[in-house]
Amino acid sequence: MKRVLLLLIVIVFASCAGTRVVYDYDETTNFTNYARYTYYPEMESGLSQLDEKRLLRVLDSTLLAKGFIMAEEPDFYVNVSSSSYRTPPQNNVGVGVGGTGRNVGGGISIGLPIGNSGMQRSIQFDFVDVAKDQLFWQAIAEQSFRDNASPSVREQQLKAVVDKVFKKFPPYTK
């Protein structure tokens, strides 16, 4: 029984791919100059209305915890965009048959995909200086997700993305 439980736990953790985050920022930026933000006026997040609402709620609380406040006259805009795509199955099995007769041999093999394709979501966070109208910080997070997940699971996934993205924000600059 313990082995079955251990195997099940290993399978669950192996099937859950972590969130990958890539950062980029202008090294000349003094992040202490930024304290107030608002969302980009023409922001099109690419998320459903409910997911966008969940993401912005989590993002607001995270930025507030880091000392940033939402204001009508901001220092920077926050722009969020996302896209979803289906990935092909990662595992496959090769099956081959062959034969030989006299001095001639031949064979054929094919790869059979195992498992379902998965959904991946990429969420991009852009911080744009209002006065200069220039991008000064960007993060792109990619994670697998289920589009039929419950609302609480969706919120947990979005919180995990925001937590991972803003774990290293603001970046340490020399």
Could you give a quick summary of the protein structure above?
With 174 residues, this protein is an alpha/beta fold. The protein has helices at 2-15, 49-65, 151-165, and strands spanning 20-25, 36-39, 69-70, 76-87, 91-101, 104-114, 118-129, 134-145. The chain has 3 helices and 8 strands, in the order H-E-E-H-E-E-E-E-E-E-H.
Structural features, described:
- By secondary structure, the protein is of the alpha/beta class.
- The protein has a single domain (19-87, 117-174), classed as Double Stranded RNA Binding Domain.
- Helices cover 26% and strands 40% of the residues.
- The chain is built from three helices and eight strands.
- The strands form two sheets. A six-stranded mixed beta sheet has the order 1-8-7-4-2-3, covered by helices on one side. It has a two-stranded antiparallel ribbon with strand order 5-6.
- Helix 2 packs across helix 3.
- The radius of gyration is 23 Å and the shape is elongated.
- 14% of the residues are buried.
- The model is unreliable at 10-15 (pLDDT under 50).
